[in-house]
Known about the structure:
The complex is a heterodimer. Chain A contains 12 helices and 16 strands. Chain A is of the alpha+beta class. In chain A, a hairpin with a 6-residue loop joins strand 3 (49-60) and strand 4 (67-71). In chain A, helix 7 (196-207) packs across helix 10. Chain B: Pfam families: Ala_racemase_N (PF01168).
Amino acid sequence: MLSVRVIPETEHLEFIRGRRSASFLQVPAWGRVKSEWRRESLGWFRDDELVGAGLVLYRQLPKIKRYLAYLPEGPVIDWEDEDLATWLRPLTAHLKQQGAFGVRMGPPVVTRRWSAAQVKEGIADDGVRRLGELAPLERGSVGARVVSQLNHLGWHPQAVEGGFAAGQPQYNFVVPLRDDAGDPRTEDDVLKGMNQQWRRNIKKAAKEGVEVTSVSGADVGEELKAFHDLYAHTAQRDHFTPRPLSYFRTMCEALGAEDPDRIRVWFARHEGDLVASTISIRVGGHAWYSYGASSTEKRDVRGSNAVQWAMIQDALAAGADVYDLRGITDTLDADDPHVGLIQFKVGTGGEAVEHAGEWDLPLSGALYKAFQLYLKRRG
Amino acid sequence: MSLTLTVDGERWRTHLRRVVDANPGLVPVVKGNGYGFTLGRLARKSQWLADQGTGLDTIAVGTYAELPEVATRFSGDLLVLTPWRPFGAGLEVDPALADRVVHTVSRLEDLDDLLTREPRARFVLEQVTSMLRHGLGTRDLWATAAVLARHRGARLEGIALHLPLAQGSHLSEVSRLVNDVVAAGLDTSTIWVSHLTADELASLRASYADFTIRPRVGTDLWLGDRGALRVSATVLDVHAVERGDVFGYRGRTAPKQGHILVVSGGTAHGIGLEAPLGDSSIKGRAATLARGGLDAVGFVRSPFSIDGKQRLFAEPPHMQASMLFLPHGPRVPAVGDEVDVRVRYTATAFDRVVLA
């Protein structure tokens, strides 16, 4: 029998520290980043032993005190269990009591993998428009079991078609930092896995004298503004809505306070000019490239490749298992504007992974429907 | 003197080739009455298709009892659609066929039982579908991996799905079922399916490019080109009747002037009392009633038609012949003439099949 109850953040953090991998969206500090929502650290107990944890963000429905309980890329439970109901039932009971009209979560399990070579061939092939049309390298049976059980338990998949959905990306690009036997890969080995252009660009950046430095998020101070200026510039060029400086400030402070190794801000400079700047995050053996910015000038010094390589080297040095470049869309259509991003990430030679995606469980049918309608109107 | 199925051989063979070529991995279904053609003929035709280099390597029979009919006429693998049970004909398969027969297993306990008796058995695992006929449930399927681990010689040939006839798209159900196959972590990536449209199959192949999809096809293969098939009966006798004349086993009386026709084809052939309308909706039945006329005096429509018009049974069909009533007016066929018959092929036993 498992039970769920609210736990202090310290206990939550302790549990995450005892794990090799958990999404950074499931650490207690992430709840501080999302300060506009009520947060809760939940623990799963078998007898008195803490065996699972989850960060819940309560998103309020306009005007009434009812919430969508959201566990981004979580919770951190034993997803291999063939009886997930024993984990999920006490969770939903608790959330309902807290006023949730529905639950949304993203089981961190892999359902399919594709190699970089396969993705590349898929983009070149006019007959293939989506990742799902390519035969995967592997289908995950654990992921499939989770999907199967969630279907049976009444959860609904939040389908992602085309671009990025509102929630967390279902498709990510990752570079494994361990070989099949589980041994750490060398820098040379990782470099060899990259395509020629990447290797050439990394070399070129070094030859041009691009210098990469980094600061722990906790200590970033005024330098964060330099990142943000370049990021705002990138947003304007690439037509996306930038987040305010304060958001990154909170992120660096909250995550940095939790662990000095949690978050780093990276700067690639050429003759004093900032040409690329990024943010990396690490939880246990999982390192992420989280945000990135690049200058429009001096693209030929390849600052973006240099800063990525520095982050990968750092992850390797930290003994990480995987370097995660985060979301890609599932489009392989060479004419799609998103395809350039995939091509950039694919050049690192890793693999595309599909996760089980985000799933909803309505707890109050009427309110859940109203919420979906509200989301649709908001577009 | 018989109920005859005449096949335009050239056209039929062209159709068969086209269907097989368009569906890689196709498994012809050869069962029951052989869709009117007989099992033996369809088995031979399957062998002919295999010999054409189509890659056809397996046919499916309905029951173990049907194996001897096809085994000598087709040299490839023989899938039995009825699930294996620890009793009955499944235990009495000719040992000479053991290596060609692919069993269907639909219960966890049967899997263990079959493999204990026949450690090298070839089989497919059937998953239960919304049809709820035979098949393993989700968790049973997951549990098969453990059973198979105990039987190292077992030869798992794939997963079988028996879907209901299309009511909307099957794809979401199939995706759910295939996901369960992945979840089971089994060492197979072959899915045997039935009743998917060409579009559904194409979509399935696209989503599961790493799987081998094997469509089992019966009706659409053998009967897919109705224009190549003609069913006819022979007029055996013609009697002119006046209103009130008595006729037939039951001593009925003629409602008006006309002819009683005796034609070949009766209950022994599968000719039923009511013509198969293919339309069993309330609306269809109401239309039958509304037609009135002779229907109202108790005459029902027969599947026999003369000059393109369906005629009425004068009385219920006999074992090998039927009596029709032809009112005064239209052309009266002569003894020895042929009339067209509309039949349900899967329920009809023809006296002759003529491949022209």
